[in-house]
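[job 0412] stage=complex_fold ligand=zinc ion status=START
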Amino acid sequence: MEDFCRECPKIELHAHLNGSLSERTIQKLSHLEGAPHLYDEWQVAINHGQHRTLAECFEMFKAVHALTVTPEAVRLATSDVITDFEKDGVIYLELRSTPREVKGRMNKEQYVDAIIDAILSHQGSIVVRLLLSVDRRQGPAEAEHTLKIALDARKKHPELVVGLDLSGDPTAGALDLFLPTLSKARDQGLGVVVHCGEVPNNPEVMEMLRFAPDRLGHVTCLHPELGGCQQQWDALLASKIPVEVCLTSNLRCKTVPTYEKHHLRHLLSAGHPVALATDDKGVFCSDLSAEFLVAAKTFDLSQHDLRNLSLAAVNFCLAPPELKEKLRLHFD
Ligand code: IMP
Ligand code: ZN
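[job 0412] stage=complex_fold status=DONE, emitting structure tokens
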């Protein structure tokens, strides 16, 4: 089963660039920055992907962000992450990242250009697409700036920049602040994906479902057994919006108590569209094959079930029909 999970073609739809850096990449970046102590600090912060609260998880990103501070570092990080996913059998990757400015070293536009550069110069068969993330800790003006960067980048690389993501600390920022920007993105033909229900918040969840993004991340606290309520769960199932399921991320952030109690069980039994994803493979010490294996073991899935799960994720890619057809051929 382990071999099957690795060899099965996979679609990764929920991966944050800075959360996905391997230990080897962190080492290289600290060397590039001439600051070996940053690697030590990262090791202490990550501590082999131990379980911690959601708030502590957000603190950990600081240790990674201290290393991706120049266009050169961002290029290296992106290039390594793409290679990691390709080695893991991922054939299509939607990578997301929050444009970041580092005073005196790079602005947000240069940050995004560096990611695009790395994607374009990658030699391999994996297909990579980019979403820009709006961080909930930012305000509406920064969200608008992110949208502008995405639209400008799409003008130069129409196939490559496919959407906007709303992420960041789920206890920060009200959804209302960001809905106008997300609506504009949708009107401009960008895909919109949203982190949903990482903490219990009934009014916000219902508002997100009404907004109907292309995909929802996590949906952790919607089921009545996980801090939600029947009304939210029923609304989610009725919406048929595909869910990006990040088993290990949810477990390590302690938003689900065990794999067995993960709401994937209920999503599968309802036949709801789902795609397994890593979220932050570097921070949570996982990869997509490992997520497949956990799903198989926990929910008693056969190789046939896994193959169908992986194939179904093609339907939810922010990609044109011709590309989806090409991806499906891998499964024959
Ligand atoms: P970056 O956008 O490439 O810098 O990736 C790290 C960022 O992704 C973090 O600072 C968060 O804003 C966001 N992120 C990563 N994992 C999660 C998650 O599970 N929930 C919400 N936001 C997340
Ligand atoms: Zn995420």
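Residues 6 and 163 are 28 Å apart (CA to CA).
[job 0412] exit 0
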